[in-house]
Amino acid sequence: MSSQSYDVIVIGGGAVGENAADRTAQGGLRTVVVENDLVGGECSYWACMPSKALLRSGAALAAAKRVPGAAEAVTGTVDVRAALKQRDSIASHWKDDGQAKWLESAGIDLVRGHARLTGTKEVTVTAVDGTVTVLTATHAIVVSTGSASLLPDIPGVQDVEPWTSRDATSAQEIPRRLAVIGGGVVAAEMAAAYASLGSTVTVIARSPLLGGQEPFAGELVTAALRRSGVTVLVGRSTTEAHRAADGTVVLTLDDDSTVSAEKVLVATGRIPRTHDLGLEMVGLEPGDWLSVDDTMLVQGDSPVLAGDWLYATGDVNHRALLTHQGKYQARAAGDAIVTRAAGSPIDTAPWGAHVATADHAAVPQVTFTDPEVASVGLTAASAVKAGHRIRILDYDLANLGGASVLAVGYVGKARAIVDLDREVLLGVTFVGQDVAELLHSATVAIVGEVPINRLWHAVPSYPTLSEVWLRLLEAYGRPGFTDNDTDTKDENEDENE
Predict the structure, then answer these.
(1) What is the CA radius of gyration of the chain?
(2) What is the pLDDT of residues 399-409, one digit of tens each?
(3) Residue 22 DSSP class
């Protein structure tokens, strides 16, 4: 057994942990990252990057087919071998040499092995060969262990060896038939990807797809999946799974119908990777999400947590299960650790230097289906639930000059939610081809609380999809020329019932 001391210990070397370590190292604190798998984490090898690589070939081909001239040049389907080769390259062939080299270049140490909290500011790491190293932190420990796929309690599902998102994004063969259990982002994206790669796909969802988004987002994505040949069964649940004599997986649904497939992807949610982290040593329950304040300090009643030393960033705190949001949290936490170590005041005011204020109502997210779904902030339903007096602005993206150039038969919709009392945006959703790049403008408007009357002076270029901003403003009316103070709360409630 060996022991080492650092200023900061980061448990988890994914994108979030890397960002936390980078901020503390840049702040002059000696930092170590502990990783039991690949440095770079879920996003680099099994989530964000490889999943988008799987989706890209099909989306590019579909986009070409919507442009006369290009459409006539398209003579085949997606080259599966080439698409998988590109995915493998994007995932660095599941080797983390480059990421480990980056840690070294940033002056951050790396210890490989499984980490457990074993005391105040203490972590014990067990390597694959059984070697044990005890690490102690002078200032802080940051937990960035992420989340894992949740396997539902469906009789027989474990016996059929279901895919999780990790399996779906790293598969080397495309199944002839794929069943997807779930209706969230992973389910929708992988259904789209595998359909484009030649699988016959069936999606089984208890609720409408993309349920946390504006209702029209799930409706447009569902319609597009069906047009691409995917069978989408909404309002159905899987009650049992078994493997037939020929090796086929058979799923029984709650209406006694069955779905057969070579592979089954379970995409029904996430659980925190905290079950073997030693949380009991700090008075917390193993397997639970870690509750944090806006500086990412872990909250709890145990006296062991006194002293502002334990932080949790990324999925593990359950605030916003998105890589970019976790990295944002990590930057806030890292800077807070450096500031506290120096004995300087912490800026905990909303939008301050050491807090993750955006987690509460300004979270951007893109679902990379075809059409894409790009959203930030509150939906109409969540805005009404929060007590805001709002107005809903909708616009058909097909009416834009930029859309007509982009694709024949463009299908898409935009919605903006306006706070009538402050005349600022609370939320924006775009659905359509290539709308992801519109999202940051909406994010800036919401985070900056840009008044509607100032947005009129942000002139969109023509002909682009950005012209939607002008059309939304026209739907609202220019302040001083129309009566915008109409309370539409009741109207909103009716619309979202």
Answers:
(1) 24
(2) 999 999 999 99
(3) H
From the number of C-beta atoms within 10 Å of its C-beta (0-12, 13-18, 19+), residue 55 rates as buried
**Cα dihedral 191→193→196→201 (10° resolution):** -20
In this structure, what token pair is assigned to residue 159?
């016996």
What are the pLDDT digits (tens) for 78-113?
Answer: 999 999 999 999 999 999 999 999 999 999 999 999
pLDDT tens digit string along 462-480? 999 999 999 999 999 987 7
CB count within 10 Å of CB 156 equals 16
Encode burial over 112-132: b for 16+ CB neighbours within 10 A, e otherwise: bbbbbbeebbbbbbeeeeeee
Which amino acid would we find at residue 450?
Answer: V
Contact at 8 Å (CB) between 144 and 311?
Answer: no
| 234: its two tokens | 């909404």
CA gap 123, 55 in Å, rounded: 39
| Cβ-based neighbour number of residue 401 at 10 Å | 12
DSSP state of 303: G
Phi, psi torsion values for 177, nearest 5 degrees: -130, 135
The answer, yes or no, to whether residue 458 has pLDDT greater than 70, is yes
Query: Between the CA of residue 329 and those of 15, 106, 340, 409, what are the distances in Å?
Result: 11, 20, 16, 40
Q: How far apart are CA 402 and CA 305, in angstroms?
A: 55
pLDDT exceeding 90 applies to what percent of the chain?
Answer: 95
pLDDT at residue 487, rounded to an integer: 46
State residue 496's pLDDT score: 39
Closest CA to 333 of 319, 354, 303, 350: 354
Distance CA 76, CA 164 (A): 30
| pTM of this structure | 0.94
112 forms beta bridges with: 35
Query: Identity (one letter) of the amino acid at 296?
Result: M
Of 282, 278, 308, 279, give the one whose Cα is nearest residue 296.
308
DSSP type of residue 304: G
160 — phi, psi (to 5°)? -95, 10
Q: CB–CB of 310/143 below 8 Å? A: yes
Query: Can you say whether residue 182 is alpha, beta or left, with left for phi > 0 and alpha for psi between -120 and 50 degrees?
Result: left
Question: Is residue 453 pLDDT above 70, yes or no?
Answer: yes
**Taking 80 as the threshold, does the pLDDT of residue 488 lie above it?**
no
Average pLDDT over residues 213-239: 98
